[in-house]
Amino acid sequence: MVAAVEAAAEQVVAQLREDCATPAARLDGVAAAMEEEMRAGLREEGGSKIKMIVSYVDNLPNGSEEGLFYALDLGGTNFRVLRVQLAGKDKRVVKRDSREVSIPPHLMSGSAAELFGFIASAVAKYVADEGVNRALNGKQRELGFTFSFPVRQTSITSGTLIKWTKAFAVDDAVGEDVVAELQMAMEKEGVDMRVAALINDTVGTLAAGSYNDEDAVIGVILGTGSNAAYVEKASDIPKLEGELPKSGKMVINTEWGNFSSSCLPITEYDQALDEESLNPGEQIFEKLISGLYLGEIVRRVLLKIATQCSIFGDVSRTKLTTHFNLRTPDISAMHHDETPDLRIVAEKLAGHLKIANTTLETRKMVVEICDIVTRRSARLAAAGIVGIMRKIGRATPGNNSRTVIAIDGGLFEHYAKFRQCLESTLAELLGEEASKSVSVKLTKDGSGLGAALIAAAHSQYAK
């Protein structure tokens, strides 16, 4: 009986292992498909599953920036106001501080004037609390605005809101220029501050990476969600209208989360998760690799095993049917469990899923499932990065250019086995020679520090 139960569970795991397999040949196909979609998205609007948004950031910070700059990071129920003092090549970031403010729920479904008025009021108080600031030397304050909602950007300082997400429903702001709304609200509050740049957090991550290392050309978010931005030749963007920037470069926000391809290893669990999601058929790549979904995929695998055999006891007595009851930090803790009896695995199963009295063999199986799902995620993320590197000519053995990839997000920062797998997969796909010139760097707070740095790089006083 015990042998039959174990065989049924192993059959599910074996099928998962096969369906999640990412051999180098398959990843090569993913990278090629990513490059192809990127080219299509650069040719024309709507030409690709990934948007390839022109950020209008044509100058990244390089460490020479000086002065006092601000950032506003709006992406959820809280927003941050930051102040960053920069002192050029010698001292870099001298000082930075920030304040977090909660948005009252009624303002999240009120009017644009009320929402932006509240934000501007918080900015005004923040500026007032700093007192007379001699560092400005009579110059107008300048701010980088990280706005983590879908916008149609038309310049470095303008973008119209396409739609709200994350529980916001300020209807009269849709179709309006969010920079103009903020600028008008700050003027009403008597704040003499210019919005020097409108960005998203991925572009900010690239900027923060570039500030610390001028060879940073790709920025990636690997956290709850996932996205990538990179530096493209302006002449290689057919859809870019008007005069090309003097720098000859342009940062592209790929929005790669919406990438999908027949090359991707998709399981029955991924299909069910997608069908039951709020956006079925969309964000397929993100649903395979980002931190929001990894724990949920593992839970679905465990539920399948529980319906096939009695290894976890009576399913109705567990919480295996509760969606998103297992989070990525939980599977990371289980995956990294090095105790002899896998005590942490037992605690997580009991605490989150109400599964008690598991055998050591069962706990080992759970760790293997975490490994299979996480390895697929890390290897696919690496393939996406290689696709970008191929597009900009950084993935060939003869290329001697040093390539720095700036990465932010909890999945990369806190999940050591994910990070190790991503880095080893990059080396595997690029080959020994090409991978020697590639460096992956954790780059934190692109949405805050990165926004202030882009404001500095696009300052009206920049030399």
From TrEMBL:
InterPro entries assigned to the protein according to its UniProt record, in alphabetical order? ATPase_NBD, Hexokinase, Hexokinase_BS, Hexokinase_C, Hexokinase_N
Q: What biological-process GO terms show up in the record?
A: glucose metabolic process; glycolytic process; intracellular glucose homeostasis; response to glucose
What's in the GO CC field? Answer: cytosol; mitochondrion
The UniProt record lists the EC number as 2.7.1.-
Q: In which pathway does it act?
A: Carbohydrate degradation; glycolysis; D-glyceraldehyde 3-phosphate and glycerone phosphate from D-glucose: step 1/4; Carbohydrate metabolism; hexose metabolism
Hexokinase N-terminal domain: which residues? Answer: 13-211
Q: What reaction gets catalysed by this protein?
A: a D-hexose + ATP = a D-hexose 6-phosphate + ADP + H(+); D-glucose + ATP = D-glucose 6-phosphate + ADP + H(+); D-fructose + ATP = D-fructose 6-phosphate + ADP + H(+)
| Enzyme class, broadest EC rank | transferase
Q: Which UniProt keywords apply?
A: ATP-binding, Glycolysis, Kinase, Nucleotide-binding, Transferase
> What Pfam families does this protein map onto?
Hexokinase_1 (PF00349), Hexokinase_2 (PF03727)
Q: Say if the entry is tagged with keyword Kinase.
A: yes
PANTHER family linked: HEXOKINASE, HEXOKINASE-7
Q: Could you say which protein family the record assigns here?
A: Belongs to the hexokinase family.
Recorded protein name is Phosphotransferase
